[in-house]
Design brief:
mainly beta, Thrombin, subunit H, 6-stranded antiparallel β-barrel, 7 strands, globular
């Protein structure tokens, strides 16, 4: 990922061109009012620029659940769940200021996936002293 060219940029964190897909949900008074599909256009430490399947209201609370690039040789599925407030809307594009986020790691059910993760983690650890 490389930072987006600054131009007339007043943001605190650099933006990175990054595209992945997922789902979004819009909430009002803690009730789900809209949901659909989303695609990121760029990301930064504080926010996301999203392309949505339909417009959302400005200032709404939004939760997005995105696929994240696979780690451990495609053996683990990681998802980013972020929530925040829509600060700008342009048609079906929405800028989300992130208030909280977490990564969700899918459970490893298959033995080959567990083995691949174990090997990758073992390669990252320092060698064990001889017994």
């Amino acid at each position: 990922m490389t930072p987006t060219k600054p131009g007339n940029n007043r943001r605190r964190s650099p933006r990175y061109d990054f595209q992945t897909e997922g789902k979004y949900s819009v909430f009002a008074n803690q009730a789900l009012v809209q949901s659909g599909s989303a695609r990121t256009l760029n990301v930064s430490a504080g926010g996301l620029l999203l392309a949505l399947d339909r417009p959302v209201p400005a200032s709404c609370k939004l939760v997005v659940n995105l696929q994240w690039p696979n780690v451990y040789h495609d053996a683990v599925r990681v998802r980013l769940i972020a929530s925040g407030q829509v600060v700008r809307v342009d048609g079906t594009r929405a800028a989300l200021r992130i208030f909280s986020h977490r990564f969700h790691i899918a459970e490893l059910r298959s033995k080959p996936a567990r083995t691949a993760v174990s090997r990758t983690v073992a390669a990252l650890l320092p060698p064990r002293p001889a017994a």
